[in-house]
Amino acid sequence: MRSKLIAGNWKMNGSLAANQDLLLSIEKALGAPACKVAVCVPALYLAQVQHLCASSALLWGAQDVSAQEIGAYTGEISATMLRDFGVRYVLVGHSERRQYHGETDDVVALKAQRALAAGITPIVCVGETLAQRESGKTAEVVKRQLAAVIHTNGHCISEIVVAYEPVWAIGTGKTATPEQAQEVHALLRAQLVAASTQAERIAILYGGSMNAANASSLLSQPDIDGGLIGGASLKAADFLSIVAAASH
Ligand code: PEP
To answer: Structure pTM?
Structure first.
């Protein structure tokens, strides 16, 4: 049985003061949750989050990791550096990184490999644009994106988490219907099953305008094992409602 995971993606939001308020409000109400709960924060704040969350059930992650191991890569942050700060998860291949930083499928696969080698779970994001969906290319796109990660990480693929995030649903208020999301999740599950005998363990999260109102119906689908939450993870009450929806 896969345990559900609700992961917040703060993106480039926050400040020392705002993070403290948000984390303390979440922790106060979280107690011992029935699912895993994590926040993926800007790297500069990992030390703060480690300090504030060390004795709570809240886990933390980063939003990116270098594809390189060590050395002359100005501005990059390696997986072993993330590990120094107790990081459990790292997002790789978020559509904003693919779009604004030119990350290719091969780079995303290498980033996942670096994370796994450091004992950090990569949350591998895949998803189609609106144009790709409208031209019937959704399955082809998400399968190609996941195939690169499977190819590079075959032997330890069961250690990853996958997040299906249709690009047209991210930050737009447009959510995939539970049926649309389930259809893609089932495709991804089949691809993972073909690659690994342990594939049933792999959590596949949905991301894209998930909120307190739509979380239950999305999370009740058989292959939706949690959520990657952007906007709604910045408000404690909204984030906690999604956690509650995942805990039934
Ligand atoms: C995201 O950025 O991963 C995301 C899902 O954002 P939002 O929930 O705001 O659509």
So the answer is: 0.97
Number of domain units in the chain? 1
Taking the centre of ligand 1 as the mean of its atom positions, its distance from the CA of residue 227, in whole angstroms, is 9
Rounded (5°) CA angle 141-37-155? 50
Tell me: the pLDDT tens digits for 39-83? Answer: 999 999 999 999 999 999 999 999 999 999 999 999 999 999 999
Query: What residues contact residue 185 under an 8 Å CB cut-off, 6+ apart?
Result: 164, 204, 206, 221, 223, 224
What is the 8-class DSSP label of residue 204? E
Give the position, in ligand 1's atom list, of the atom nearest the Cα of 163: 3
Structural domain of 51 = 5-246
> What CATH number should be reported for the domain holding residue 78?
3.20.20.70
* 95 close to ligand 1 (CB < 6 Angstrom): no
Q: Say how many C-beta atoms besides its own lie within 10 A of residue 55's C-beta.
A: 7
